[in-house]
Amino acid sequence: MSGTTCETETGYPGTAGPGARIGTAQGTALLLGGVLGPGVLALPHLAASAAGPASIVAWVALLALSVPVGLTFAALGGRFPDGGGAATFAARAFGPRTSAVTGWWFYFAIPVGAPAGAMIGAGYVAPALGLGDTGTVALTCGLLAAAFAANHAGLRFSGGVQLLLAGLLAALLVAAVAAALPAVRPGNFTPFAPYGWEGIARAAGVLFFAFVGWEAASHLSAEFADPRRHLARATVLTLAVVGVLYLGLAVATVGVLGPRAATSPVPLALLLQEGAGSLAGPVTAGAAVLLSFGAINTYIAGGARLGAALARDGALPAPLARGAAPGRVPHRSLALLAVLSGALTAAAVASGIGLDPLMRATSACLAAVTAVGVAAAARLLSGAGRRVAVVATAFTVVLLAACGPYLLVPAGLAAVGMLVTRGRRR
């Protein structure tokens, strides 16, 4: 109910008070920004490289996984609205140490994933504008700066911007898929699985980047005017939109592009060429900006609030929690994310590291967060909610294994997080 207070186990309130003003429309836009992110620009290529036409199987499996995962996080966020999100759920179900580790996975994945998202968007925009490597770096930094500035202005402002961008983005992707589908050729689906089940598993591992976002919205649950009602509605609407767009894009990419889907880093641009011709370049650039900004904006918003909650609960330095409350911008946590994101962007540019490792490292961390979140739901919820959470947990654990050696990233963060938390509690 609106205006109720849910106490966390550490005694800190997660309220849906008068400062929380997000409704269904803005919530749906923020969720779409988190789930329908810039990965959609590059991931069809990476998935096709890993599995060939059978990458469609990975897309379908992950869409099926998104339903119980999305509904589970909506149920948890509605029942326990708090900026800690999955970390708060973990605290209730498994205790403070698991909570701290879960929070670290999400918080420190953002400075890796946000630059990756900005790089994807810049990689599409720069060629359309005739810019070289320097221009691409400048665009990457510009997208990051814009998202941090929007969050600095407040969630109501950034949510309003996101609502407009989400509508434009959905219309653009529908138009791209509709224009390309008549060019689908059945021969492009054979051989269907040239790399077998191993290829499908590898495709699923990288595609998880396209299906995260539910855990990000849980950090914004206390900002909803009515978390129980509005978050559930926003989740259902997002599931419907994402399902249609992702399936259409997956089929069109393989069916229209054939072998080019595995070799071109800009598959959406090639699809648009089928229907838009010379307009494909600027249209793709526009889509890249919308996708990149939307996802980065949502994750920064959730991460900033998580950082304040972690500081409140002793998992990060206490000053990060000062001035943070539902409806208010956690400026200190936001500033730390900005510094870390800038540093990692500079390191990635200087080292020449590609998108694939950045996206896989981010996916591994967020898959770990999702696994803990749905496992917590299996203990905290009852009835149908618990049954859905059990299904979500089983799916997520299987998918987590598909991340392979990149699981070393969340493992390393877990070790550091436990050491820091243990030291602060002495």
Written description of the protein model:
With 426 residues, the chain is mainly alpha-helical. Helix content is 75%, strand content 1%. The protein has helices at residues 24-35, 39-51, 55-79, 86-94, 96-129, 133-153, 155-180, 196-207, 214-218, 227-257, 260-263, 267-276, 280-312, 331-351, 355-380, 383-401, 408-425; strands at 5-7, 13-15. Helix 1 (24-35) packs across helix 13 and helix 7 runs parallel beside helix 10. The chain is globular and about 55 Å long. The model is unreliable at 1-20 (pLDDT under 50).
Determine the mean pLDDT. Answer: 79
Which class of secondary structure composition applies to the elements? mainly alpha
Residue fraction in strands:
under 5%
Topology pattern, helix = H, strand = E: EEHHHHHHHHHHHHHHHHH
Distance between the termini: 38 Å
- Name the quaternary structure: single chain
- Helix content estimate: over 70%
- Poorly predicted ranges: 1-20
Shape: globular
Main sheet makeup: 2 strands, antiparallel
List the total number of helices. 17
- Rounded radius of gyration (Å): 20 Å
Pfam family, one: AA_permease_2
Keywords: Cell membrane, Membrane, Transmembrane, Transmembrane helix
Membrane topology: Multi-pass membrane protein
Organism: Planobispora rosea
